[in-house]
Please model this.
Amino acid sequence: MAGSIAQQFAWAQTLMAVGLLVATLAARLALWLYAAFLRPAKPLCARYGAWAVVTGATDGIGHALVLVGRSPDKLAAVAAEVRARRPGAEARTFVIDFAADGLAANVAALAESLRALLRGLDVGVLVNNAGLCYPYARYFHKADEALARDLVRLNVEAVTCVTRAVLPGMVQRKRGAVVNIGSGAASILPSDPLYTVYAATKA
Model:
């Protein structure tokens, strides 16, 4: 008799645990559905600012963008596409090759040029999207020094340089957001053995 009661109690505990797990998963799913599909849009322009600066811009979204990249023709095409898709939208371009040899020596000049372009603009969002990866997987000792230097220059120095140029205006206005685009290579696959320098620079 005592064994039967203990067995029933064990079953009850198991069912309660399964029910709690199912309820937790259902609640998480409901929250995700609400956040992804039902939650009303937030007034980002009012909260952060009217302009966004996007580095590595190959696709434009928004009403007021400063597109930063290395190809003047591609930047002009993206700016024209933004204006065509969103009548009344403004798009400005700033050409810089973040992997250029002189970038490290000219960080101050670059920051000042970018500040001059942004002067008077209510920049609320900075998206550091520019990045570089290995052309193909290779062991660390087989990656050439020039590639490693370019990875650090583009994925670390450029992000720091652009953020230094844009952030003071956000601090002065007491609002803004900086979005640094990382990589799953830095978090999903620890140390990513065949992309070590890339994983380290995109963490």
